[in-house]
Amino acid sequence: MKPAQRVSQIQPSATFAISAKAKALRQQGKHVISFGVGEPDFRTPHHVNQMAVQAIRRGQTRYTVVGGIDELKDAVLLEIETGYGLEFSRENVLVSCGGKHALFNLFLALLDPGDEVIIPSPYWVSYPDMVRLAGATPVFVPCSESTGFKMEPAGLQRAISPKTRMLIINSPSNPTGAHYRRHELEALAEVLRAHDGIALVSDDIYYRILFDGEEWVNFAMLGEDLRERTFIVNGVSKTYAMTGWRIGYLVGDAEVVKAANKIQGQSTSNPCSMAQWAAVAALRGDQGCVTHMVSVFEERRHYVLQRLNDIPGVTCAVPAGAFYVFPNVSAFYGSRVGGRTIDGSAGLADYLLETVHLAVVPGNAFGEDRCIRLSYALSMQDLEEGFDRLASALKALQ
Ligand code: PLP
């Protein structure tokens, strides 16, 4: 049977596709190293697991209210107060099944067919397709390596049209690790202040994973006028190594949050009850696990950049956060090896997977074909082995 028209407008998630290819090779007994993973390689903290076990024992295993239990909403409010210095109320919070779900609800709640959504490129793979599923049109603003892949005011200005309804900022970014500093956001805000109908979506899922003492800042923190139209999306997946628990949240204008809650009520209902309790423990509990994880990622970033800089032909912007690097490998495009020509990031990713069993995500999935995305959420031993393989495979192309 033929699926609905809207499905033909979207692609399967590229990161999941790479993981599937890597898994197939592993099943054939190959030792695959995956730089494709989009999740921390740490265990969910013990006290978080314990809270979920307790919730099961206490019988907290039934439907909860659609938008999340009050205890979790309060924990989110406290997080936003301490992490952002912003005060909201429960009516401004919706808890969903992951940050991805929070974004999807938000897009459905805010976007109408014909609306345009500005997405700085490179972008997280799911934004354009989620926007399309909501019937709106993504408008990309290419951001170059020379600006650290960050959008500049002129690019934003050029992209704005009477149809613009939303701008999405993801900082620190997946795939580049780029983080907008206060003065950079202020410069963008100056443009946005002349267009007060544009909703600002701040995907802050990596906000705790920042290096070198970088200051955390987003649009909502720049002033009341911007706070009113900023929608904060965040969650516990990356910060607490809780990707499987599926808890994320949306914080923003009460009317839109109510609309998103209505959509959630007619689709998934509440997020998993015990996962909500686990998220309360994560947000309220000891934050030592986060500090530890971030310091490990920071050390790895140092190593990864060193290894990349040692490979002739590769350039790489220094990421300020998250756990990805997005090196430019376009110097190798056009090379011929084993009867094939490497014609772009997808071809290079296939070549790396097939020849040295190294999984990477092609940059074309993020809107930048000159690059590939490497995650360093894996052990030092695997990183060392992976970079040996990358260096030798790229050398063979020279
Ligand atoms: N936003 C970005 C930029 C991400 O990279 C991810 C996950 O990869 C998400 C949102 C969604 O995370 P989750 O749905 O696990 O909370």
Concise account of the structure shown:
The protein is of the alpha/beta class and 398 residues long.
- List each distinct ligand once: pyridoxal-5'-phosphate
Instruction: Please identify the top-level CATH class of the largest domain.
Output: Alpha Beta
Q: How much is the average pLDDT?
A: 96
SS field, number of helical segments: 13
Task: Give the C-alpha Rg.
Answer: 21 Å
The second-level CATH architecture of the largest domain is 3-Layer(aba) Sandwich
Low-confidence stretches: none
GO molecular function, one term: transaminase activity
Keywords: Aminotransferase, Pyridoxal phosphate, Transferase
Cofactor: pyridoxal 5'-phosphate
Organism: Desulfoglaeba alkanexedens ALDC
Task: Give your account of this protein's structure.
InterPro entries: Aminotransferase_I/II_large, AspAT/PAT-like, NHTrfase_class1_PyrdxlP-BS, PyrdxlP-dep_Trfase, PyrdxlP-dep_Trfase_major, PyrdxlP-dep_Trfase_small. This protein has helices at residues 14-27, 46-57, 70-84, 99-110, 126-133, 153-159, 182-192, 224-227, 254-265, 273-284, 288-309, 345-356, 380-395; strands at residues 33-34, 93-96, 116-121, 137-142, 164-170, 199-203, 230-235, 248-251, 324-325, 336-337, 340-341, 358-359, 361-362, 372-375. Helix 8 (224-227) links the parallel strand 6 and strand 7 (230-235). It has 2 domains: 5-43 and 289-395, Alpha-Beta Complex (Aspartate Aminotransferase, domain 1), CATH 3.90.1150; 47-284, Type I PLP-dependent aspartate aminotransferase-like (Major domain) (Aspartate Aminotransferase, domain 2, 3-Layer(aba) Sandwich). The strands form 4 sheets. The protein has a 7-stranded mixed sheet with strand order 2-8-7-6-5-3-4, sandwiched between helices. A 3-stranded antiparallel sheet has the order 9-14-13. Strands 1-12 form a two-stranded parallel sheet. The protein is globular, with a radius of gyration of 21 Å. It is an alpha/beta fold. The chain starts with 13 loop residues before the first helix and ends with a helix.
